[in-house]
Amino acid sequence: MSAPAPDVAVTCTIDLTAPGRQVGRLQFPKITNTGGWAYSFVPISCFANGEGPTVLVSGGNHGDEYEGQVAALRLIQELDLADVSGRIVVVPVISTEASKANTRMWPSGANFNRSFPGRPDGPPNEQLADYLTRVLFPLADVVIDMHSGGRTAWFLPCSHMHVVDDAAQRRAMLEGMQAWNSDWHFLYIDVNGHGLLPVEAEAQGKVVITTELGGGGRVPAPVHQIAWSGLTNVLRHQGVLAGEVQTRASLGLADAIILDGRDPASYVICEEAGIFEGLLEPGEPVAAGDPVARLWFPDTPDRAPAVLPAPLDGVLACIRAIPATEAGDGAFALGRPLDPLELA
Q: For the chain, how big is the Rg over CA atoms in Å?
């Protein structure tokens, strides 16, 4: 069992410093009506072989985002230790109870991706975030955190990143993002609060590679494929997994398009409750003022639908997947095509 920092509430049943293949769990205190001295479990696996970087791979930050969970579980099953140079730590399903319930949030209502840096004496989500912050992130050189739109939204399947201030870190993150070989990439900002897992890892100087792999409550086979091929190619790109690094060019594909979503106006919400109708699909270009969606009002069927226009020129990157809509719900997000040289 790994020895955590003295005041860390989470324990790990495997030794993350030992060589070889190990599969175990993280556990932290849980009190329920059926178990006063109980624990919550989060699976973890470690593959360590020789010298090389350490890469932390995580899925299921949000419970209803299954694309990364499947890819990470497959990695544990299929990874050959002999192909590893360094260490790969895999937490395939972070939010285990939310994954079982097919919900974004934990049963407590906590959003794990707003729990960082966490604290050892906080609620369970903050205890687990504290373990990642003070134990797993310091071990890692690279952090891969796989997301999608979950049930709520359909996002262009893509890898994405924050644009960090440090030039060397930003360049490494850009190259890692591009190594996913998705058709699209997205540059995002945090428009909905603080406490993100990627931001904490970035603050520790890590190369952070994240994704939005579709969503909408269903995972098409091509999305499973890009989740798997992208993850394994990024691991090869980082030098921790043997094999040839593929590029868009070597695959015979056109250059990927980077969409810049750093303008807060790119993120559009619904001002009223109603039934949401998307008029465009992600990937389609828009001009400012173009209708992107409509909101219908079943309680007043003689009322004309409200049109939600594009606030700026760009490309539709993400659109709401659930028709039933409350006031304040996200409607869609746009991005402006960007030359990678602008990130230098």
A: 21
